[in-house]
Specification:
Elements: H1 2-10, H2 25-32, H3 35-40, H4 58-64, E1 76-79, E2 85-88, H5 90-97, E3 100-101, E4 105-107, H6 109-116, H7 121-128, H8 131-141, H9 145-148, E5 149-155, E6 159-164, E7 173-177, E8 179-183, E9 196-198, E10 207-210, E11 214-215, E12 222-223, E13 229-236, E14 239-246, E15 255-258, H10 266-272, H11 284-292
Parallel strand pairs: 1-5, 3-11, 4-8, 12-15
Antiparallel strand pairs: 1-2, 5-6, 6-15, 7-14, 8-10, 9-10, 13-14
Helix pairs in contact: 2-4
Length: about 290
């Protein structure tokens, strides 16, 4: 690889030119992680071109395949079952919930193979040509949702819910659905899982987000037939993913929710939604404690 790169640069090759998959030589270098190949790029190895199809810089592709905790580090505000409020770092969150907190979607090898087969060529280009989707992608990348949202224990039957610690206007970006991008055909027990999310129609993208091991606020959202959030799909950091947008004005303390139908498995929805309890706002004292947590 190093010799090929040296020859390409010596002959005046354009290392910023995208191939048919929408990736430059620098993107491939970042994914390969080979020291000699990286050295062959010289000073240009630090350049960060944005893929026109996958909406990712080389560094963002690395982050999407690293299977690591949220970076830069954040703290998630949690009101626990015992009534105590804590701002949890990654390890504390893992110990408490048994999952890693990660706002971005992590890419599997199978998805990368499909990506190299141009699975997102048309869909990715279409999404990136949409001004609204581009705006949502920028908001996702710049998000500080951990400051605007809190998790609070509701009951043993319900578990946790997500609550607004600041007001949102209709159309505002609220949070993302993080997890691992897996092929739908190999995901097991979808009919019994509350953590497998359909991003878009499977004939367009045969992959779903599995939030079993990596999870963000989106996976903690509870169901409502009249949800105050609407999921939208974007392409960011190399991955198709879902983000949630306010479909009405939302007040401080209000529980955030969306309609599970069409997003979680049909049998899961049929078997569970009828038993779900009505959603309630968070007590003002708990809102105040979460807001003050740091």
């Amino acid at each position: 690889h190093a010799k090929v790169v040296k020859d390409m640069i010596a002959r005046g090759g354009d290392i910023l030119k995208e191939d048919r998959m929408g990736l430059t030589a620098l993107h491939f270098n970042a994914l390969i992680q080979h020291d000699a190949t990286a050295a062959a790029f010289g000073d240009r190895v630090s350049e960060q071109p944005m893929s026109s199809t996958h909406n990712a810089t080389p560094q963002e592709m690395v982050e999407a395949t690293a299977y690591c905790v949220q970076s830069p580090p954040v703290k998630v505000k949690v009101a626990k079952e015992d009534g105590k409020v804590e701002a949890m770092d990654s390890l504390t969150f893992l110990k408490h919930f048994g999952v890693w907190y990660q706002r971005s979607v992590q890419l599997t090898d199978e998805y990368l193979r499909c990506m190299f087969s141009s699975v997102l060529d048309e869909e990715g280009a279409e999404l990136m040509a949409d001004p609204r989707k581009n705006e949502l992608t920028k908001l996702f990348k710049a998000s500080k949702e951990e400051e605007a949202l809190g998790l609070a224990f509701i009951s043993k039957e319900v578990g946790y819910g997500v609550f607004a610690l600041k007001p949102f206007k209709q159309g505002d970006y609220v949070c993302s659905y993080g997890g691992v991008l897996e092929n739908s055909s190999i995901l097991k027990d979808q009919a019994r899982s509350a953590w497998i999310f359909t991003i878009m129609a499977l004939d367009k993208l045969p992959f779903k987000t599995d939030a079993t091991l990596y999870r963000s606020f989106g996976a903690f959202l509870n169901h409502s037939d009249q949800g105050n959030l609407t999921p939208e799909h974007i392409v960011a950091k190399g991955a198709p993913m879902a983000v949630f947008v306010a479909n009405k004005d939302i007040a401080v303390g209000e529980q955030l929710c969306y309609d599970y139908n069409g997003r979680l498995h049909t049998l899961f929805c049929q078997n569970n939604i009828p038993s779900f309890v009505a959603l309630q706002p968070l007590a003002p004292a708990t809102v105040q404690a979460l807001t003050a947590a740091c």
